[in-house]
Amino acid sequence: MTRKQAGEHINMATKLAEDISHKTSGFIQSNNHRDLLDIVDSLRSHGVSHYVDLPQIIVCGSQSSGKSSTLESLSGIAFPTAEGLCTRFATELILRRGEKPEIKVHIQPSASRDNEERARLLSFTGKTKDQDDFPKIIEAAKEAMGLTGSEGSRIFSTDVLRIESTSPSAPNLTLVDLPGLFGASDKNQSDDDAALVQDLVLSYMRQRRSIILAVVAADNPFANQPVTKFTRNIDPSGLRTLGLITKPDKIEGNTESERYYVEMAQNQNVKLNLGWHVLRNRSHLTTNDTIEERDEREAEFFADSVWSVLDSSQLGIESLRSRLRKILWNQIQTGLPGVKADVQSGIKDCRVKLGQLGKARSTKREKHTYLQRISSRLSKLVRAAIDGVYTDRFFESFPGQQDAFTRRLRAHIQKILNDYAEKMRVDGHALEIVEDYEEPTRTSCRRYIMRIDYLEDVKDLMVECRGRELPGTFNPLVVGDLFSRQCKPWELITQKLVEQIHEAAASNFNKAVSEICDENTRSRLMKGHIQPALHRLRQNLKDKVDELLEPHLSIHPITYNDYLTDTVQAIQIERHHHKFDELSNGACGQTSDSASTDARVDLKKLLLALKKGTEPNVEEYSASLAADVAAAYYQVALKKFTDDVSVDAIEACLVQRLPEVFCPDVVWELSDEDVERLGSEDENTVKERSELTKKLAILEKGLEDLDAFTARSALRAVAKGES
Question: 20 to 30 A Cα–Cα from 429, which one of 231, 393, 463, 645?
């Protein structure tokens, strides 16, 4: 390009910027309004919009609803307008106030692009000599994005075309043209394309500080245009949605369709809090009209049509600019405190994440220092977790929080052990021995046995265990065999307990380490040190549990607990009382509970029944006593084993050892290889730190601007009060 051609290009771009400035200057209401727009633009220019939603005007609707024509009327830029498929991607028109008029055009690649595609799209630069050639920029952008129209090429793109127009009198605001919504697919656009466009439009609508200009074409049945359905779902209060009816000249007069849309414009049909507006844009026949001719045709149409029943503030492009100006003003005024809060929240989040990443570390000393800091913090957190001291913010709990229980390790362990004790009480015995006068609590017949049948098994066992005992007595080893059979489930239940405790400890470490350091270091520490250490503790715990279980499986029952004899006596007394009442009730219809002092009974019959029913049977008595002693010993052993597992195994072998898993002493003893392996940072960490540092700088600069604006506003308020 020659110097002369370059000069011509600059002059044309300057003229285009000035034209845009002239068309959009109506958005500026006052110096105070300009100051508000300036602060929003300052935040946007510093990149805050990448992290915090900022006020902007988005134009959305169905295909061929007149969106691009509306944006052209608002901005003065000749966006491509045609029936059918036209807008293929989001186009952000960013208007800025600056000393030198100029236009910059570039593409913001979508997150789905790979590095090579991103670099290619970021290098895109649109060129134009005058406003009429502006559609060529759109076509060039389509080609750059791969929207060539050839077979197999993409139809829509999630890339964004950004047009930045700067001039001395321009307002600082953003207007966004979005692809049109559609439902039915055809040879040019598929159902997947429809979903892509809908997701793109909804993503802009959900930006809670966007003003939604919902465009509805009057020449298309309202039921076929879903834009207002989406806006009511996303903005149910309608505080930031303005309905816009286009193409009022395309419907026949005095028809039901015309009356329908007039009623809609009067907010009598689909009600919006901000109401409706009506716009007549240029058609294909008047596409070459100047701005003045376009506005004159619009005014003539509204003056001599049924639409004249509407207030003039609802008709035409000039009044639309005025309405949008007021809405934008209110949106910025009310939204600025929220923007400031979001910026402050973002700054806090950046600092937390940068704290997790730590400083850049390339030397052994830097890596060792980083690991020391992690170990110190981690051991304190784990100690607090097992002590049940939940004052650190790591242990904060909110309603519905899923991981609060996992973080509070002592509470988690207590619940696991309580569940274990209950499981042992209910399912720890292989068979439920049911007294003949009771009902079983277990449903499976394989898991319970009536006592009368159980005594037959005991008698058989007494024969198998016969030693030197005298006839009528039983070998004490019978009790051991009966107990050994009953406690078989203990091993499996306790093995599950070990796994649960290990998983609880591992989850707690994972949460704590995630809180302290970055993902790369967390992965290295968990896989390279903490998980192996926890596996060793789990193995020690398993060995201890086996040690505690072994005596119950292989050694003759031994106890000096008085609870044994007390339990045997209680069991036999209850059975004796029930047997006595059963005999009495059979003989005379009375029991010890039901009989009165003056009851008349056949004493001889009663005595004969008691005599016969209590005749001693040495074999039965021996079997019954062996069964009762075994049952009583089971209760004694169960309580002791449950406590031993909880204290001597779980607590001593694992829980109290957790703070030592990765404490400063451990880090001090790490080899150079271990320090390098655990403390090094990968490319993703370096990249994340760089991005967070950049984001923090952007947000901090944005916060400075917001604070400065707040201070200026306060000074103006004071000056106004004094005057």
Answer: 463
